[in-house]
Amino acid sequence: MKKLTIIGAGPAALMLAAQIDTTKYEVTLCEKKNTVGRKFLVAGEGGLNLTFNASLEALIAQYHPSAFMEPSLREFTNQDFINWLNKRGVSTFVGSSNRVFPERGVKPIEVLKTMVDHVASRGIQFQLNTTWTGWNTDGQVTFEKTGKTSEIVKSDIVVFALGGASWKVTGSDGHWKSAFENKGINVKPFRAANCAFEVPWNSDFIKIHQGKPLKNIALSFNGLFAKGELVVSEFGLEGNAIYALSRKIQDQLLTKKEVVIHLDLKPKTTLEVLKSKYKKSTRSKVTDILKHDLNLDRTAVGVLKQFTDKNTFSNPNLLVETIKAVPVVIKSAGVLDEAISTLGGVALDEIDANFLLKKIPNTYIIGEMLDWYAPTGGYLLQGCFSMGATLAKYFNALDE
Ligand SMILES: Cc1cc2nc3c(=O)[nH]c(=O)nc-3n(C[C@H](O)[C@H](O)[C@H](O)COP(=O)(O)OP(=O)(O)OC[C@H]3O[C@@H](n4cnc5c(N)ncnc54)[C@H](O)[C@@H]3O)c2cc1C
């Protein structure tokens, strides 16, 4: 039997361990924390989106680069993942937004426990409190175990699944970057993705509207379009609609001091309908027309005022056009550690089509450690689980 060491015990690693052929491989799963899957549990705090209910083509299109993710997503689809969970007793349901959640009443820790119990029942060894530290001169991976000095784990094959670089408290701290760079591997700088963005609110606005939602809105930026909701924070804006634009906004912020995104406060109502409602209004104050005839709430009106000049505000046609495209100024991205996911990581041209590192023999990388992006909504976990399942299938077929 070949000795396979998986390092990092998040979703990508757990799915690999769940599907690897244990008659061919003696598998050890090393995790530096004293429990596994901490980020998965954090993901569960705000409502765990396990995957997204969409056709495979639509699902694949949400990933960047989608050509890289496509083979894994086809190998282990959203439906395969749902079936896999259902088979192990975890029921799921599709929410109104097409996000897939564990059945009501099933806690994220129970989902995790089901996965971990399944992996353990297959004879896979867990080594907790075991931090990977690098390679020795023979090329073997080295570890530090709490309370002990360094140790070597002899492995025929090593799979890294160390995660991205946000929410350090979960163990995904990106500290692995320098060790890989020292081996000549290109690791793209970490940047926040699916994160908050800074908006220069005026102080009067933010005093009143901090924490308030902007529901049923749409955002557009550079050809991207996202419906959803936003929350106004002291720092700026957060929420699924802006997360979906985060990669493109971040790319622009690399070269520009600020970027402008467009906010449609009434995506379900056409410009013509809004204009006609405005025209028919019998009220004299603009704010009253906005609130009572166009049904914009106080926060939406506040945002509109922030980004319109007096001339626009007093011109009905211009104002209604602006409701459909409020030019919101973005100054910067939120801090990396608070981001839901990470841009950057090991450059995709460092691995082959089977996740094998080209520069280090018998060494593979899966999960958020690699430089790919997906929006929130279950795509991130699906991507990680798909990579784990795909690599298991590849290993299982080796030497046949
Ligand atoms: C607040 C929040 C909410 C989220 N919500 C969702 C959601 O609803 N749906 C969704 O799809 N995604 C969500 N995500 C993203 C998702 O959780 C991650 O994309 C996913 O966990 C990444 O999986 P992974 O296996 O690549 O790595 P991780 O889950 O990050 O696991 C990596 C593991 O490696 C270990 N490790 C790191 N360094 C070492 C080392 N040197 N030695 C040993 N072990 C090490 C870490 O301790 C960690 O356990 C959310 C993330 C956050 C932060």
Automatic annotation (TrEMBL):
NCBIfam families: aminoacetone oxidase family FAD-binding enzyme, flavo_PP4765. Keywords: FAD, Flavoprotein. Residues 3-392 form the RsdA/BaiN/AoA(So)-like Rossmann fold-like domain. The keyword Flavoprotein applies. This is NAD(P)/FAD-dependent oxidoreductase. Residues 191-341 form the RsdA/BaiN/AoA(So)-like insert domain. It comes from the Bacteria. Its cofactor is FAD. Gene3D superfamilies: FAD/NAD(P)-binding domain (3.50.50.60), HI0933 insert domain-like (1.10.8.260), Translation factors (2.40.30.10). InterPro entries: BaiN-like, BaiN-like_dom_sf, FAD/NAD-bd_sf, Flavoprotein_PP4765, RsdA/BaiN/AoA(So)-like_dom, RsdA/BaiN/AoA(So)_Rossmann. It comes from Algibacter miyuki. PANTHER family: BLR3961 PROTEIN, OS12G0638800 PROTEIN.
